Every structure is written in structure tokens, then in C-alpha cells.
């Protein structure tokens, strides 16, 4: 058996798939690997939707590998070894989810320092990887405290060393349903975005499903003087409309946007009637594709019995129509899709699972055609 086939066999067994399931999950891989490298520029005759240089992963997906003790395993552990493995798989981009690893990994536990960032940058460069973003510190206070502003500027300095084009957060700008709170969040993000832009970095917020639920912006007021009904505008759509497109960007998590489509389809209008409105994640991106420099390419298998309507699965093995999404979103060649899977770690039962899923997902990302 060739080394290549041995590797595929080990991958198949590690994923717990039989041969038929594995072949189905990796359809198009053989064809994809046989193709010549894409020529420069956005036009690709072979229809590849994610060009080689844009194939990325957020390190949250393999957080178990980064945080495990290298003295207790032969599996890749810590940033440096995980970068080597991701590069071997074929990834060209990573997105950080903080800068912490196991204390026994090379460089120590916390690399959120100038020295730590220089070390990370060296390891990225050694492996031909580009860091695109980080889910890190966004000040909670508004107006900004001096301490928060200093910490934000330090985060920008580290981002600069790492060569990040983008810096953001894993949370929504506010968890509130009320228009007034989104107005405050937009004021804060516009200011932070200006500071980031001056440092050559795009500031982004990452969504979960609730950010695409309906804004409470009208109707009778409650006892606290807050609106109780909606004009039909969704929270994040409102945020997009009142933030400066030159300074505030978004990272759509395509899985959670589809969960929002499943969950949030009715609202109570100002007159008290219940209205229906189906959310279209693709249309939001098509309306202003440059606002979405990053995506989380997270796949889901349809499961209407679950609260979210989908179960998270490796990229390319679910029911979200990524071929349609990536072929129709606009601004071809601009976006940076990062594979993410919150439930990739296999725990003690299967400690290699997250990197195995990363490999399967990379192959499916590379095989995507449209």
C-alpha cells in the first residue's frame, strides 16, 4: 500500500467512516489533487471556489491540540507543531482564537506579548502560513477607559507583528435586543475601527445566530421605557447600516447565519400583527460583499428536531450549500474562509480527531467547485 493510501486509510479509520462513507465525504478530492495549480488572478477556468492561498482554519477548531501537554503525547501539540501539521495538510491561512497554549509547549503558555508574537510570526513564516485575524480583546467600556485603550493598542501592535490584516472578536457587538444599545455599540465600534484602520488593520465582529434575530425598535414601550415590537429589521443588519463601512467589518459564521434562518422567521410588528420574514444569509453578503473579508466556513447537517436546526459536522459533509454561497456572494477572490468546527476535538477517546477533521475539511474546501 502506498504511503498516500496508508494515510487515507488511517484518516478514514480515525474518522470512524466505512470506505463508502469516506469516499462520499471526499468526493472530488482525487480530481482536485490532479489539477494543476491555479493561475494568478480571480478567474479560474476549473471553477475552484476557494483558491489555494485562501484556504484557512481558525485555530479554535484544533484548540485541544494547541492546549495539550507535549510531554504526554506524540500528537502535534502547541502552536509550532500544530502549524507544521496544518501546513502539511495544505492550509495557507490561520485565524487565532487567542495566543495561549500549554505551558510545556515551545515558547511557554502565553504568547500575547511582543516577544511571543515575534516567535509566532517566525513559526508562521517557516510553514508558509499567513495569519488573517484573531478573536481577541475588544473593550467593553464606553466611553473608552485609558486602560482599555492601552490594551486595545497593544493588541493592534501584536497584530502588526503577526501580519494580521484583520482583528476582531468572537462575540456580537452587544447581546441586547434593543435599538438604543445597538446605537451605543455602533458608536464604540466606529471609534475602535478608526483606530484599527490607522494601524492598517480591519476591525471585525463575528456573529452568532442571535445577532440576526429581530431588533426591538418600535411599538408600545414596556415599564422600563423600552420598545416591545419590531419593524422587521434584524440586529446585525441595523448595525451594518449605522457603522462606517470604511472602519467596521464583519466575519459571518455561515453556520450560525443558517441557524438564524431556521430560528428567527417571525416578528411582532408595531401594530401587533405577527409577520413572517425568512432570513437569507447570502443576500446580506451580496448587498455589500466588501464588508465581509472573513467567513467561518462551518458546515451543518440538517436536523430539524434540534434547537438550531443543524448539527455541526466537518466541512463538506453537511447540508449547507457552500457551492452556491461561494459562487454567488460577489467580490470573487476577496474573501478569506476559515474552516471552523466547534465540536471537532475528540477528547480522550479520540485525541487526534480535530486534526483529522481539519484534513478532511481541507480536502473538501479544496474540492469545492461552482
TrEMBL record:
One Pfam entry for this protein is AP_endonuc_2
InterPro entries referenced in this protein's UniProt entry, alphabetically: IolE/XylAMocC-like, TAT_signal, Xyl_isomerase-like_sf, Xyl_isomerase-like_TIM-brl
User: What are the protein's GO molecular function terms?
Assistant: isomerase activity
Which keywords does the record carry? Isomerase
Reply yes or no: does the keyword Isomerase apply: yes
| Keyword Zinc attached | no
Q: Where is the Xylose isomerase-like TIM barrel domain?
A: 83-338
Q: What is this protein called?
A: Sugar phosphate isomerase/epimerase
Q: Which organism is it from?
A: Thermomonospora cellulosilytica
Tell me the lineage of the source organism: Bacteria, Bacillati, Actinomycetota, Actinomycetes, Streptosporangiales
Amino acid at each position: 500500500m502506498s504511503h498516500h493510501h496508508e494515510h487515507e486509510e488511517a484518516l478514514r479509520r480515525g474518522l470512524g467512516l466505512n470506505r463508502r462513507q469516506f469516499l462520499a465525504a471526499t468526493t472530488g478530492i482525487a480530481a482536485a489533487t490532479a489539477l494543476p495549480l491555479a493561475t494568478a488572478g480571480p478567474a479560474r477556468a476549473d471553477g475552484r471556489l476557494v483558491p489555494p492561498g485562501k484556504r484557512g482554519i481558525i485555530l479554535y477548531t484544533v484548540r485541544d491540540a494547541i492546549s495539550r501537554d507535549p510531554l504526554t503525547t506524540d500528537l502535534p501539540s502547541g502552536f509550532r507543531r500544530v502549524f507544521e501539521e496544518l501546513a502539511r495538510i495544505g492550509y495557507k491561512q490561520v485565524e487565532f482564537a487567542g495566543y495561549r497554549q500549554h505551558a510545556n509547549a515551545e515558547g511557554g503558555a502565553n504568547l500575547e506579548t511582543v516577544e511571543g508574537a515575534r516567535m509566532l510570526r517566525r513559526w508562521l513564516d517557516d510553514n508558509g502560513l499567513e495569519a488573517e485575524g484573531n478573536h481577541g480583546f475588544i473593550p467593553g467600556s464606553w466611553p473608552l477607559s485609558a486602560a482599555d485603550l492601552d490594551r486595545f493598542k497593544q493588541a493592534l501592535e501584536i497584530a502588526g507583528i503577526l501580519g494580521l490584516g484583520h482583528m476582531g472578536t468572537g462575540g456580537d457587538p452587544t447581546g441586547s435586543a434593543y435599538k438604543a444599545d445597538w446605537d451605543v455599540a455602533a458608536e464604540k465600534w466606529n471609534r475602535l475601527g478608526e483606530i484599527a484602520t490607522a494601524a492598517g488593520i480591519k476591525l471585525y465582529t463575528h456573529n452568532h445566530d442571535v445577532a440576526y434575530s429581530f431588533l426591538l425598535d418600535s411599538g408600545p414601550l414596556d415599564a422600563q421605557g423600552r420598545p416591545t415590537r419590531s419593524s422587521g429589521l434584524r440586529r446585525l443588519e441595523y448595525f451594518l447600516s449605522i457603522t462606517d463601512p470604511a472602519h467596521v467589518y464583519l466575519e459571518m459564521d455561515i453556520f450560525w447565519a443558517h441557524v438564524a434562518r431556521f430560528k428567527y422567521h417571525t416578528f411582532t410588528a408595531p401594530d401587533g400583527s405577527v409577520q413572517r420574514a425568512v432570513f437569507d444569509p447570502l443576500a446580506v453578503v451580496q448587498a455589500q460583499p466588501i464588508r465581509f473579508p472573513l467567513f467561518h466556513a462551518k458546515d451543518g447537517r440538517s436536523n430539524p428536531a434540534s434547537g438550531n436546526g443543524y448539527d455541526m459536522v466537518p466541512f463538506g459533509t453537511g447540508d449547507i450549500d457552500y457551492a452556491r454561497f461561494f459562487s454567488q456572494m460577489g467580490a470573487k477572490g476577496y474573501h478569506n474562509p476559515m474552516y471552523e468546527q466547534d465540536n471537532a476535538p475528540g477528547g480522550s477517546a479520540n485525541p487526534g480527531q480535530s486534526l483529522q477533521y481539519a484534513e478532511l475539511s481541507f480536502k473538501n474546501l479544496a474540492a469545492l467547485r461552482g
